[in-house]
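Database export, one record per block. Field names are fixed; values are copied verbatim from the stored entry.
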Amino acid sequence: MNLIRGWFGGSQGTCSRSRSHRVACVAGAWLLCVLVLAVCPAMAQTPVPAAKNPGSRDSEGFSTGWTLGARFEGDYSSAAGVYDLASAVGYNFSRHLAMDAGVPVYFVSTPVAIKRTNPGAVSGVGIGNTFVDLLLNYPSRSFNYNSAVHVTAPVADRKKGLNTGHATWNFTHHFDRAFGAWSPFLDAGVGNTLLDTRYFTRPFTSFGYNVAFSGGLEYDRGKYSFQGGAYDVTPWGNQTMFSRVFRCAPTANCTNPQRLSNNRNGFKSASITKGGAALVRDNGYEAGIDFRPVHYLDFEFAYSRSVPLHLNNYSFGVGVNLSSLVRRRAH
């Protein structure tokens, strides 16, 4: 799950200043959220594609005040269908500094092939770990830099692969340089767990140190944008993989395995796999399209390919910036 900071408090345009128009916008946004909640279980049973965070290129930075946002996204491949609905509330202290916190809800579909080998494996719903983000943003019309510290508390169900049993952290950085509508970008981060990429929600979680890089090119025409690039994850030290698709039965004892393995597809046949750095090393490429018909609503559709896992992933995302509907833009 990658939460959309752009939706939770970037300085976006707002609805008309008339009270009736703002009320109509808010009602429409809440109706959309209700519809998303209503269809989530169905999508969990009949998997469809997934996606990730659109970056904000607004040169004014954050708008001071409270923020509220929600996003539903999903990722489908031959290994799993992983979907999540996340909401967050935050506060922008200035145009450069902000915080937010929230919790995701996951909907996981286990492929039939995995169920055949593990009758105890089940698809289902689970609450993810609560998270807190500290965000820094230094934008301009030509060059942007932003950074985030992402921390989670281990409160989710470990047997469902939604929790590593440890508090996790990631420290990430983003750079982009605009040349008209074209913007090359670079992302770099370090942490003790793998973050999902913008367009790839992995069928497992992990615990172990790693550095991650991604880079590419974005073409932005306002209401729609296209992005393509590549990513690389380089872990070090011992790693533990927690499968989201090979679940322990409720009565099973999901203890840590004693033998080490470097089988990257171990998540298909075991709830927990332990090994060296090669266990979760990953690289691949991805491309997606982002469509923003109005300032508070965003749609994403994408394709990504994990080379070591031999996985083709199809993803989607829907984000709603509720805070931009209820307050004026800060100047």
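Remark 1: The first helix runs from residue 5 to 9.
Remark 2: The radius of gyration is 19 Å.
End of record.
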